[in-house]
Design brief:
Number of helices: 4
Number of domains: 2
Shape: elongated
Radius of gyration: 29 Å
Distance between the termini: 64 Å
CATH architecture of the largest domain: Orthogonal Bundle
Number of strands: 0
Mean pLDDT: 87
Helix content: 55-70%
CATH class of the largest domain: Mainly Alpha
CATH topology of the largest domain: Helix Hairpins
Largest sheet: none
Low-confidence stretches: none
Length: about 130
């Protein structure tokens, strides 16, 4: 396979970092054909091009984290408000009216405790939170 050759100049620091990557690959068992300055530099250029393209797509109207967060928050708020209304309606149902387990205040505290338990799995409490 005939591959085009690109000659470029880099700083000594960049050259040292690339050489460190090559050495790291070799200590992990790669031979001089699998890990060398040429193929490592080529890999880094390819990765850089991917990052560059992703950033350009974002600037040109691609994925927007802020817009995504806004839509997610809006939908979570809607879902929460709908659930609250449905819970209030259901708690007034004649079949469960007067049953302690279905009292709105008790259900609310059970929901809060359940949410706190699940949230703590993802975001453990720190001494600052207590």
């Amino acid at each position: 396979m005939n591959m085009p050759k690109i000659q470029t100049f880099v700083s000594s620091a960049i050259e040292e970092e690339i050489n460190n990557i090559v050495l790291e690959k070799r200590t992990e068992g790669a031979d001089r054909f699998e890990a060398n300055l040429s193929n490592t530099t080529s890999m880094l250029v390819e990765l850089g091009l991917r990052v560059y393209k992703i950033q350009r797509n974002r600037q040109e109207g691609g994925f927007s984290q802020v817009e995504f967060n806004k839509v997610m928050l809006e939908n979570m708020i809607k879902t929460s408000l709908i659930s609250q209304k449905l819970l209030r309606i259901s708690s007034r149902n004649a079949e469960i009216y007067g049953v302690d387990d279905f009292e709105i205040s008790r259900m609310s505290s059970q929901i809060k405790m359940g949410v706190d338990t699940i949230m703590e799995q993802f975001f453990p409490l720190t001494s600052e939170d207590e």
